[in-house]
Give the backbone structure.
Amino acid sequence: MHAGKKYTFFEFIVWTRRDIYRLTILAIIPTVLYHFCKFTFLSISWVPVALLGTAVSFIISFKNNASYSRLWEARQIYGGIINASRAFGVMVRDHLASEDKKADVQIIFYRHFAWLTALRFQLREPRAWENANDPRNIEYARLYHVSEKTDKLEDTLSKYLSADELKYILSKKNKATQLMALQSSHINKLATAGNLSDLQLQSLQNSITSFYDNQGKAERIKNFPYPRHFSSIATIMLNLFVFLVPYGLLNEFNKLGNGTLIEGYSIWLNVPFAILLTWVFNSLDIVGESSTNPFEGSANDVPITNISRTIEIDMRDMLDETDLPPVLTPENSILM
């Protein structure tokens, strides 16, 4: 996610420049034909265009609200994972406080780090409806590094799991699910051996249930896109409005110069004002679209890599480890 103070106006212009080129062409063509070729029939009443613009503003607002809701829910999910992880770590450490159980505590802790790793790798996998391959996003992605797209899952998991567990997990389709299943199995074996009371076992199993619950919520957002019919109608109506705006403003700007020094030339004001109006609507739409998929690895995503690292640091600190991983810092104001 963008962790700086704000996006600058220049960044927005660069990010949307391809759209500006398109909008400029759409504004120039009817203006040139109207002024030089006297195609006055190209001018249409502004009233229906304005009514269409009202409808477009409503549907884009609806889309942006839905996109923000998906983004905020994703952040809440990972907030829940942070809290549950800290509580789980404290319970495991304190319930298994005897000297002979330190190895089990470390195994459970490190397996939890592996679960966080597997989950974030799964959430970063591309989907057909995501926008990471949009040219504007590909270009902006050069400013930061998404570790899940360059690192190998096997290499990262090998830091946390034994060779046997690593081989087992890599053979599974949903690796995060199976890692949490291993946690449950390990905890139940400790309880069977008399190392945990029934109440302690229940509290730890409740934590595992919480992890599964949050994982399922994150997978739902990842695997269920913003409904295509809402997205499609918003795009269709927006493109229709963008196309009609220059035609609806032709007569308005042509009359603007009547009786003034710019009579006959005021028509050219149609170009900048049509570009500005359509750019505002178009930019609002792509801003909403950029937040629709909060796990795809864009500059506006939930920083799940950073959150996972924070959890790992906190939990390893509980073990009194001193060789902690470094805190992830933003690259060009982007935190992943």
